[in-house]
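A.,

Following up on our hallway conversation. Structure tokens first:
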């Protein structure tokens, strides 16, 4: 499998070199050499990749310079591919760290001349509120230290090398964190418990990763789909949609395929339904003979429907 991967990567590099020599023109992105290079990069994206294969072949390092290719289509596709591989490597590293695979033994550093034991005894005396001196006790008592309070652990999302991806994640996190306050007044205790147990940061990271994998870069061809999803997640009136995403009722894979109407709030969906019903009923009304000379307002309305 590794040989097939390396062979495919070499073909993509050769195609990228040929595409770089294509003269810029009106339809440069449709040039056969450019299309061939993009097609090979798409095959690499669909190749069954794992952390071990990426580490052993280091194929990502061979293609890294394509992020600066002079053809925009090749450049965007290379960035997309390398971001996906980068996420795979980060996931593999985090899994290995959880298993303790990459734990580096630290050499023991014993203090010289018993300095460590002296410092320890001094700290113990300070914690007891009394500082001992040689030959007796000091009459001045030090105030006792306040008990240490453990800070709550905060989940931190894995940062991406792409600033636009990080921005999308931050927007999603900010919107999903509102769900806790929005359900505070609800009577459903089971739902409140589920919301408290959910991690907005992890959910936002998962949603953005699927969006990037399915839709491509934020500034790419599907930027309007990105904006539609972000708008509906942030919509103050669309609390149910936010909650469903946070609780996993709407999976990221399904989210990217929803239409604008499906993502809209319940109130907006009812309004759209009423408008459609009113429009169809108006169109299906029989045309009367005396209505031939319609007013300007009537004609304007018909044009807007058309």
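Then the amino acids I'd put at each of the 306 positions:
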């Amino acid at each position: 499998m590794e040989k097939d991967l390396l062979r495919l990567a070499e073909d993509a590099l050769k195609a990228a070199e040929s595409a770089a020599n294509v003269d810029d023109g009106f339809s440069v992105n449709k040039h056969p050499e450019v299309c061939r290079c993009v097609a090979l990069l798409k095959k690499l994206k669909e190749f069954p990749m794992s952390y071990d294969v990426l580490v052993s072949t280091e194929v990502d390092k061979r293609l890294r310079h394509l992020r600066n290719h002079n053809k925009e289509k090749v450049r965007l596709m290379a960035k997309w591919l390398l971001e996906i591989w980068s996420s795979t490597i980060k996931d593999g590293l985090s899994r290995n760290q959880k298993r303790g695979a990459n734990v580096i033994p630290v050499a023991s550093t014993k203090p010289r001349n018993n300095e460590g034991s002296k410092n320890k005894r001094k700290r113990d005396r300070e914690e007891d509120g009394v500082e001992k001196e040689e030959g007796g006790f000091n009459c001045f008592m030090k105030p006792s230290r306040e008990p240490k309070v453990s800070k709550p652990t905060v989940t931190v999302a894995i940062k991406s090398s792409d600033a636009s991806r990080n921005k999308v994640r931050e927007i999603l996190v900010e919107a999903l964190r509102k769900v806790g306050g929005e359900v505070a007044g609800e009577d459903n205790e089971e739902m409140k418990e589920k919301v408290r147990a959910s991690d907005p940061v992890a959910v936002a990271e998962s949603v953005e990763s699927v969006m990037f994998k399915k839709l491509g870069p934020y500034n790419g061809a599907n930027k309007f789909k990105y904006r539609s999803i972000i708008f509906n997640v942030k919509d103050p009136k669309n609390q149910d949609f936010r909650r469903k995403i946070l609780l996993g009722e709407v999976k990221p894979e399904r989210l990217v395929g929803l239409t604008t109407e499906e993502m809209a709030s319940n109130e907006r969906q009812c309004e759209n339904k009423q408008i459609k019903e009113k429009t169809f009923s108006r169109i299906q009304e029989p045309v009367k003979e005396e209505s031939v000379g319609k007013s300007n307002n009537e004609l304007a309305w018909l044009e807007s429907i058309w």
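Confidence is low (pLDDT under 50) at residues 101-111, 128-144, 146-156, 287-295. Curious whether your intuition agrees with the design.

B.
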